[in-house]
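Obj.: predict assembly geometry.
Materials: sequence records (below).
Method: joint structure prediction, all chains together.
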Amino acid sequence: DAGVIQSPRHEVTEMGQEVTLRCKPISGHNSLFWYRQTMMRGLELLIYFNNNVPIDDSGMPEDRFSAKMPNASFSTLKIQPSEPRDSAVYFCASSPKDREDQPQHFGDGTRLSIL
Amino acid sequence: SQQGEEDPQALSIQEGENATMNCSYKTSINNLQWYRQNSGRGLVHLILIRSNEREKHSGRLRVTLDTSKKSSSLLITASRAADTASYFCATERQAGTALIFGKGTTLSVSS
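Observations (raw structure tokens):
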């Protein structure tokens, strides 16, 4: 079975540019999570969706960040305009919501560097 | 905000030894989970323990949970070089919600 697929794996861009990160969750999973990992703050939730609907976006840093889930098999996280402090590894994870005590399955992440 | 805090931050042991990592958290939970992260990769789920459970085993892994102390421990027995990774505890406050992660323990197992 294919796991959670994220693209790109690495992104290097200049400050001010728009960045779009993509995620394909595991088929049949109806919860999708975006996390950010930095040395200083560790792993933090940005936003999560249940059945394509955003449930908790309290972790989204500011208006420069936006996330969408247009259908059950695809989600994007967009940063516009990007800043050097956005440099981090961004992870997408999915899980089946309709069963209790299910682990989350993580993609390999997108390593983002903003110059 | 971080809920789980792992202890120690780093641990170095020899192959065959046991490794114990501890985790503390702050609020009530539905379950607590342990994940492993190899360098440059995503997190891999290891084991989940429900709030009404006290101990759970999976292969060489043993997890304990003390909800009165809001703490958990992960024991890896007979460690191998392949166990070298970062280990994170994560709490789920309500079923189906996001996980709150600690900052992790970096384990190095030398042969």
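Conclusions so far: Chain A touches chain B through 26 residues (CB under 8 Å).
To do: check interface contacts against the pulldown list.
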